[in-house]
Amino acid sequence: MRPAAAPRILVDSSLWIEYYRPDGRRHRREAVRDALAQDRVATSAIILIEVLQGAMTLEAYDALRDDFAALHWLDLTRATAEQAARVGFDLRRRGETVPATDLMIAATALNHECRLWHLDDHFERIARVVPLQQQKFR
Fold first, then answer.
1. pLDDT-derived band of residue 3, with 50, 70 and 90 as boundaries?
2. Please, which residues bridge with residue 43 across strands?
3. Given a cut of 90, is residue 43 above it in pLDDT?
4. What is the secondary structure of the chain as a DSSP string?
5. What number does CATH give the domain 9-136?
6. What are the pLDDT digits (tens) for 89-108?
7. Has this prediction a pTM greater than 0.90?
């Protein structure tokens, strides 16, 4: 019997920024590097946009685009959008507001059964209302 494949990891832009910084925290960079080596890392349109728009030069933009082309792609579907909206609705009922982009990223991780790695408090709030598998790196 073949062991189950390790779950995919959706790396949020907050952690990608740390990964690409030369002075980024070593344990964070190594965790992403190890997941990349295991071919477990996925991305989505929103994360791609957030990372690429932050490139400082055209050369950096092209290099980032090439790096992200090698990752597993997670589509954003209508079901993902509806789930994101529902999570946002539920959070607002609790008096909390989370950016729509973070709601979409969390819903993408949920719908594709990925673990979400991040540095963003919003995802911990989301995980209080839905079973989001997430890890905030310290």
1. very low
2. 73
3. yes
4. -PPPPPPPEEE-HHHHHHHHSTTS-HHHHHHHHHHHHTT-EEE-HHHHHHHHTT-SSHHHHHHHHHHHHTSEE----HHHHHHHHHHHHHHHHTT----HHHHHHHHHHHHTT-EEEES-HHHHHHHTTS---EEE--
5. 3.40.50.1010
6. 999 999 999 999 999 999 99
7. yes
Give the model's pLDDT for residue 7: 78
Token pair belonging to 120: 């963003």
- Main-chain dihedrals φ then ψ at residue 24, nearest 5 degrees: -65, 155
DSSP 20-53: HSTTS-HHHHHHHHHHHHTT-EEE-HHHHHHHHT
For the chain, the structural domain boundaries read 9-136
